[in-house]
Design brief:
The structure holds two protein chains of two kinds. Chain A is mostly beta strands. Chain A has strands at about 5, 10-20, 25, 30-40, 45-50, 50-60, 65-70, 70-80, 95, 100-105, 110-115, 120-125, 125-130, 135-140, 150, 155-160. The chains are: A mainly beta, B alpha/beta.
């Protein structure tokens, strides 16, 4: 990963080269020797090219606020290759990843569910696996009831995706 | 290296419930371990005091460098054998630091049954010496044992890996250039006499230490000769007449001081130069591991959350994150040492099996030790998977795992069932060290599956014979299998039988691995003979 930071609309590409006592960073083609020491969660000391400075930092998602040398900087973190891979599963049908038995059905027909909610607990190969909703929407049918066995690929729960507003 | 983003909710009811559940398990384990280490009959403690002998752990405190770690092996060996009468199998073994050198310790525990060798004592000593052989470590023997426990002699004497193996390993070590020192605190009789005699250096304590092939009563019985212990094998005789021992010590403390001085003369060979970075504590608190391990062996947990609480800075460079997702592979650092980690996130399918095999070959090519975090119920079974060659793929994983030249380390975090135990470097596969978490389980298959399989076989047998199955009899078979399983799948049984190198609290995993990896670098890594196949 090559993290990209944006400060005042200027992009900086940062590559860590070596991590030993200090970190050697390549910033837009320039090498910098950096040493970082945290005093607590938000307060630390950073030594750049031998010159130490105290700083305060706070992170809000992809935004980093740094107070250093009497000035506050706002840094936006942009991950150049950070785009998450599409797993191709945007269908509302939750299918069985392997053959098994239903232990517990966690939803009823007509329930609304959020993506990632547990909809079913299955057991296969001595191991219980939680089956999660693939999309946010309404449960339209349950494929297998508790105690029933199923084959790989069987539709366990069908969900009609909520209209994107 | 990127930090793992933990998804663990430490405020959830589940987290709190699991934490409490596992705290209870760890308290039970700590109590058992404390008893095994320190609870001794007053009679034995008094006897040692009367003989001016220290307790074995007092000797260790003086021998080891102050403030350095001691990685004890198999503290719960024999906890389920001999009705619990041989705590820790009457001996203390482990890796410690003496004079700045990593050494294997083999100390008799004379505070129980005179330190007699039970069958599991022999197994524990042989294992400790195997660890010395595999990692090229010197050994310090603290000798104070009554010798073989005669009522069980047939289980500890004659076979290949029994008592003779202790001395055979001593010979191998010397041949390999691994130094050995014996501190003779008590009697070394018969076979036991060879431990100091086969050591490169030895110190003997006047008055209590003695070395001879047959003690005075045996000499009297065999030849009629009347002789005292000191004349036959005391400190003065052996250090001035026979030359069997090297140094005379007036007290145990002096013997230990002389021993430390000897060790400090030993050459310190350079270790294998494994890639290393400045060590960094895990970003996520290791005590949170207790809230990750579920209260039921069947419930799944995310091994990446475990890795985040073991490795430096919780940083993990994951390999093939979107392929064979039930197998987590990736690079990390522990105590600064570069390692390749393999952890289970479910059953091994064809793709996850091939991913593991390929990753191990990459680590081997790159001289990176392997750490296995086992929570495995096995390789996926069924028509579809057999047709895709799951047996063949499992064989590939075993062939590569068994063939790598880099050191391997195994942690039994939860379940270890069936062939998954083999693939993930179970005991038979020569991990340099293997440690178990207290709630972990090992068996050839799950208890329900085993019981049902046996009942199915019994039913078929009765049907062939034309007999109507008796429901009660079948239930009895089931219950017997389940009861046996409960007993024998537990980590306490595993550790009692020395199928591992000890039970540890999950929180101590990082340190146990750190010491193990550091020790393993005393032996050179081998050369890989062929390239990496993309499977």
């Amino acid at each position: 990963m090559q993290p990209k930071y944006i400060i005042d609309d200027t992009e900086y590409l940062v590559t860590p080269i070596r991590r030993t006592d200090s970190i050697v960073l390549d910033i837009n083609g320039h090498t910098q020797d950096v040493r970082l020491k945290w005093h607590d969660e938000h307060y630390g000391e950073i030594t750049i090219a031998g010159k130490p400075s105290q700083f305060y930092a706070a992170q809000d998602e992809d935004r980093l606020y740094i107070h250093i040398d009497g000035k506050v900087w706002e840094v936006n973190i942009a991950d150049e290759f950070g785009a998450t891979q599409d797993d191709g599963n945007s269908s509302g049908n939750v299918t069985a990843p392997m053959p098994g038995v239903v232990i517990e059905v966690a939803v009823n027909q007509g329930d609304s569910v959020n993506q990632g909610d547990t909809v079913m607990l299955i057991e296969s190969m001595k191991l219980q696996t939680e089956i999660k909703a693939s999309v946010t929407g309404t449960v339209t049918s349950i494929g297998s009831e508790a105690g029933a066995s199923f084959n790989k690929g069987a539709v366990l729960v069908s969900i009609t995706a909520e209209e994107q507003s | 290296m990127r930090r793992i983003q933990s998804k663990l909710n430490t405020n959830s009811a589940e987290f709190k419930q699991y934490t409490q559940h596992n705290k209870n398990i760890i308290t039970e384990f700590s109590n058992k371990q404390n008893d095994a280490r320190f609870k001794r009959p007053q009679r034995d403690i008094d006897r040692l005091a009367k003989q001016n002998k220290m307790l074995p752990r007092e000797r260790l405190d003086l021998l080891l460098d102050p403030g350095t770690p001691f990685l004890e092996f198999s503290s719960l060996a024999a906890n389920m054998a001999y009705d619990g009468t041989a705590p820790s199998a009457n001996c203390i073994t482990g890796i410690g630091i003496v004079g700045g050198r990593e050494v294997v310790i083999n100390a008799s525990d004379s505070s129980n049954k005179g330190g007699a060798w039970y069958p599991l004592t022999v197994k524990k000593i042989v294992r400790a010496l195997d660890i010395a052989v595999e990692n090229h470590l010197p050994v310090i023997h603290l000798c104070d044992s009554a010798g073989g426990f005669l009522p069980l002699q047939s289980d500890l004497f004659g076979d290949k890996y029994m008592a003779g193996r202790i001395f055979r390993n001593q010979v191998q070590l010397s041949k390999m250039g691994c130094k050995q020192l014996s501190l003779v605190f008590g009697h070394c009789t018969a076979g036991g006499a060879y431990t100091p005699a086969l050591s490169d250096y030895s110190v003997i304590v006047n008055g209590t230490g003695a070395v001879f092939l047959g003690g005075p009563p045996l000499v009297k019985a065999a030849t009629g000769e009347d002789v005292t212990v000191d004349e036959l094998g005391g400190a003065s005789m052996h250090t001035s007449v026979s030359g069997t021992c090297d140094y005379y010590a007036g007290s145990e403390r002096e013997a230990i001081a002389i021993g430390r001085e000897i060790v400090m003369q030993w050459e310190q060979k350079s270790k294998f130069a494994l890639q290393r970075e400045t060590p960094e504590d895990p970003y996520y608190d290791p005590t949170e591991l207790l809230g990750i391990i579920p209260d039921d062996i069947k419930k799944q947990f995310d091994m990446k959350e475990v890795i985040a609480r073991i490795v430096d800075g919780s940083r993990f460079s994951e390999y093939q994150p979107n392929y064979g997702e039930t197998m987590i592979c990736g690079f990390a650092n522990i105590w600064g040492y570069k390692v390749g980690i393999l952890g289970n996130n479910g059953v091994l399918f064809n793709d996850s099996t091939l991913k593991a095999a390929h990753f191990m070959a990459l680590c081997n090519q790159n001289n990176i030790p392997l750490v296995f975090l086992q929570n495995i119920t096995g390789y996926m079974i069924g028509k579809e998977y057999e047709q895709r060659g799951i047996t063949k793929d499992g064989a590939k994983m075993l062939m590569i795992q068994g063939g790598v030249e880099v050191p391997k380390f195994t942690i039994m975090t939860n379940g270890s069932f069936g062939a998954g135990n083999y693939g993930m470097c179970g005991r038979s596969w020569d991990a340099r060290t293997t440690f178990s978490w207290p709630q972990s389980q090992i068996s050839v298959m799950g208890s329900d599956q085993a019981a049902n399989t046996l009942v199915t076989i019994k039913l078929a047998q009765l049907k062939r014979e034309g007999i109507e199955p008796d429901a009660k009899e079948l239930e009895a078979i089931r219950e017997q299998v389940l009861a046996n399983y409960e007993n024998q799948t537990s980590a306490y049984y595993t550790s009692s039988e020395i199928w591992d190198d000890g039970i540890i609290s999950p929180v101590d995993t990082r340190n146990a691995l750190g010491i193990s990896i550091s020790a393993s670098l005393n032996a050179p890594f081998g050369d890989t003979k062929y390239g990496v196949l993309r499977l």
